[in-house]
Design goal:
Layout lengths: L2 E6 L5 E6 L4 E5 L19 H26 L4 H10 L4 H13 L5 H15 L4 H10 L4 H14 L2 H14 L4 H10 L4 H7 L2
Antiparallel strand pairs: 1-2, 2-3
Helix pairs in contact: 1-3, 2-3, 4-6, 5-6
Length: about 200
């Protein structure tokens, strides 16, 4: 591989590289830790091993840019973003490297995702802590992060009030007796809380 040109892009720390043969790709020096990045300049020729490292960095950069595109639309969990990128047929080892970079630089955050998800979910669903915890964990959020996000959420939203709304909704749907209690438990409310509402 022989370099024709290299220039930093407007996306912080990302460089556009043009090979002598006309091929164009992007790299970030963090993706080539064991190569002196300053050597990547016009006229420099790299052997096969070095070229492989540079091209690997190019693949990681492609994945990073795709991940940033998804993150530009909405908050993502690492787990969910990994699945989306795997569906695009990207190699898992390159995905891991790109997502590590995005997490370390706070572009990707399971904590932010959990907060955003809880906010959106609460707009259309009346659910208790147990159900919400289960839903977050099913989206790849750790129990620790999920619990923290739920503590935060329920410090701003009264779970008893949400329970009352769920109860009223299920009553309007014609549920009563054991069916009503079962629906409330599935919605994530404790039996103790349900009993307080169901007096």
């Amino acid at each position: 591989m022989k370099i024709k040109s290299i220039a930093e892009t407007s996306y912080s720390g990302m460089y556009k590289v043009v090979e002598e043969n006309g091929a164009v790709f992007f790299v970030r020096k963090e993706y080539i830790p064991d190569l002196d990045f300053a050597r990547i300049e016009a006229g420099t020729e790299f052997d096969e091993e070095e070229s492989g490292k540079i091209l690997d960095a190019g693949l990681v950069s492609v994945i990073e840019l795709k991940a940033v595109e998804y993150l530009g639309r909405s908050e993502q969990s690492r787990f969910g973003l990994t699945l989306k990128l795997l569906k695009k047929k990207y190699d898992k080892k390159y995905i891991e490297t790109a997502l590590d970079y995005l997490e370390n630089n706070d572009y990707l955050s399971d904590q932010r995702f959990a907060r955003a998800w809880l906010h959106l979910r609460s707009l259309k669903h009346y659910e208790g802590r147990t159900r919400l915890l289960s839903e977050l964990i099913s989206r790849g959020i750790s129990k620790e992060i999920s619990t923290f996000a739920l503590d935060e959420f329920f410090s701003e939203h009264d779970e008893m009030e949400i329970c009352k709304r769920a109860y009223e909704t299920f009553l309007k749907q014609g549920k009563e007796g054991e069916k009503l209690i079962s629906a409330m438990i599935r919605a994530g409310f404790s039996y103790k809380m349900i009993k307080l509402i169901n007096k």
